[in-house]
Amino acid sequence: MGVSKKEKLHLYTRLTLILFIFSILFIPFASCESNESHTYRIGVLSIYGDKGDLKGTWSPMVDYLEDTIPNSSFEIVPLEYDVFSQKIKAKRIDFFYCNPLLYVEMSRLHGAGRIATVQPFWNNSSYAGMGGVIFTKAGRDDINSLKDLKGDSFVAASDKSLGGYLASSGEFHLVDINDADFSKITFVNSQKDVVLSVIEGEIDAGTVRTGVLESLIRDGVVHKGDVKILNTKEYDDYPFISSTKLYPDWVFAKTASTSDEISKLMTIALLTMPADSKAAISIGASGWTVPADYSSVDSLMRDLRYGMYVDYGKISLKDVFIQYWYILVFIILIFVLFAVHSRWMLDKKEKSQLESSNRLKDLFMDIMRHDLLNPVNVIRGFSDMLYVEETDLGKKESLKMICSQTDHLTAMISSAAKLARLESHEDMEFKVQDIGLILHMVVDSFSTEFSKKGINLVYENGTEYFSRVNDVIEDVFSNIISNSLKYSPDGSTITISVQDKDKFWKIMVADEGDGIPDDIKPLVFDRFRRADKKGIKGSGLGLAIVKRIIDIHKGSVGIDDNPGGKGSVFWVMLDKA
C-alpha cells in the first residue's frame, strides 16, 4: 500500500521541525563549550631578585603563546629557587622555565617532563650548551692550574647556578679539590661583580657562566688581557672559552598534572617560534629546540652530593634493615646454626672427655682400692701376728700404733673412693623412699656403738617422710650419726628427729659434745677438714661426702648449736616427694 503525497509532505515537515529545534537547543551550547578559554600558569625561576623584571621580559612570550594556542591565556609566576618545589607539589603551576639543576630535581621528585630547551645565540648564530669559566687576575704567576687554587679565596655568583658554579665544582672534584680547600668562598649574586672582584684583586679566583666574559669585553666593561683562564677547554662550533664540560641549557617543562593536549600544543608553539620574533628576542634567545638530555646534569649532582643527592650513598640502619632484611635474617640464621652446631660439638667433646676422665678415675679408684688395700691388709695381718707374739711392752705399743694407723688408712681409702664416685652422678637413679625407714635402719646398725659408750638415744621413730632420693642417701645419715658418736662423751644423749618444713623434711641429729666454734662451722664440710679433737679417729672426708650427696639431691646441710645446752645439731633438708 503506497504512501500519498500529502502524507509524505507531512512527514518531511515533522523532520524539518525536529532538526530546527535540535539546532536551537544544542548547537549553541557546543559552540560555547569549544570557545571556552583556560588560563595556564607558567612558573619562571627568579635569579638574583629579578622578580619585577620577569613579567615585563616574558610579556612578548605570553602574547605569542596566546596568539598561537587558541582559547588559552597564560600568566607568568616568578618563583624563587626555594619555593619552586612546593608550588609544583601543590599543583599551583602548569608549566615552568628553570635552570637544569632545578629541572632535574623537579623531574625526579615530582615527575615533571621537559618540553623544549632554550636556543641562545651569539653574533647572530645559535649555539647549544653551557659551562663555566674559571679564571684569575692576569699576572698571577702563582696560579696556573686548578690545584694552585688550594688555600686561595674563590668567588661565584650563586651556589644554585650550574654554569656559574656547579660546573666548575665538577672540575675541582676531578682533581680532588673541594670547598674546604679554599680559604673562603664568596657568593655575590652577580656574574659581573664576580669578574670585577677578581680583576680588582679582592678575590684570588672565580667562576662565571660561559659567555659572560665575552659579553663584558664586548660591552667594554673589562678587557681580554685582564684575566687568565684556567683549565681551558675548546669545543667545535662553540663560541665561548670554557674551563668545564658543557651541559644542556635552561629548559621549558610541564608538571605531572598538566594535560597531554595542552602540552602538545605548547611544544608545537615553542618549536615553531620564529628566531626574529619579539618573544624570542625578549628572552635573549633565537627560539627553542627539541629538549636536551639532562642525564649529565643528574650525574654531576650525584657526584657532588648536591641538592636531592646530599645524602646520596649514606644508608641508615633503618634503610639497611628495610632493603636487606632477608640477607640479615639469613646471616642471623647462619650464625645461630653455627653457634648451635659449635655448642653441640663442644658439648660432645666435653662429654667424651668427661666420660674418658670418669673411666680413668674409676680405673684409678679400682686400682687404689685393690692395689692399696691389699698391701694395707697384709700390713695389718702381720702387725696383728707380731703383736700377739711380741713380749716387749714397748714394741707391743708400737705395733698397736701401726694397727691403728693401718685402720685409719683403710678408712681413708674407702672414703676417697666413695667421694670420687660421687663426682660423676649422671647415671644415678632417684626414687621415692621413706626417710623414716632409712633412718631406722641406720640407727639399728649403730646399736652396738651406742651401747659401748652408754649413750642414750632419743629417736622419734616416725615414718612416711617421703622424698625422692638415691640409695646413697643412707651414707649421709650414717656419717652424721657416726660423727655425733665420735664426739659425744660417754653417758650423754643423742637425739634424732624429723620436722615438717612446708616443702621440705628437716632431719636433725643433736649431740651433747663440746660443740663446734662458729669460725669452724663453715669449714667442716670441706675435704680433709675436721674439728681438732685429739684421740678421735677420722679421715676428714665423711662430712665432705655428706655435702656432696646432699648437693646431688639439691638439698642443704648445716650445723647449729644445740639449743638444749652443750653440743651441736647437724641437719639436712630434703625435698618432699
Overview in brief:
This protein has 577 residues and is an alpha/beta fold. The protein contains 18 helices and 19 strands.
Structure description:
The chain has 18 helices and 19 strands. The protein has about 575 residues and is α/β, with parallel strands linked by helices. Strands 1, 2, 3, 4, 5, 11 and 12 form a seven-stranded mixed sheet that branches. A five-stranded mixed sheet has the order 8-7-9-6-10. It has a five-stranded mixed sheet with strand order 14-16-17-19-18. The protein folds into four domains: about 40-125 and about 250-310, Periplasmic binding protein-like II (D-Maltodextrin-Binding Protein, domain 2, 3-Layer(aba) Sandwich); about 130-230, 3-Layer(aba) Sandwich (D-Maltodextrin-Binding Protein, domain 2), CATH 3.40.190; about 320-410; about 430-575, Heat Shock Protein 90 (2-Layer Sandwich). Helix 15 crosses helix 17 (about 475-485). The chain is about 45% helix and about 20% strand. About 30% of the residues are buried. Strand 4 and strand 5 (about 125) form a beta hairpin. Pfam families: HATPase_c, HisKA, Phosphonate-bd.
Could you tell me the radius of gyration in angstroms?
55 Å
Distance between the termini: 119 Å
By CATH, the topology of the largest domain is D-Maltodextrin-Binding Protein, domain 2
Question: Which stretches are poorly predicted, pLDDT < 50 over at least 5 residues?
Answer: 20-34, 532-539
Tally the beta strands: 19
Percent strand equals 15-25%
Task: Give the helix tally.
Answer: 18
EC number: 2.7.13.3
Pfam family, one: HisKA
Protein name: histidine kinase
GO molecular function, one term: phosphorelay sensor kinase activity
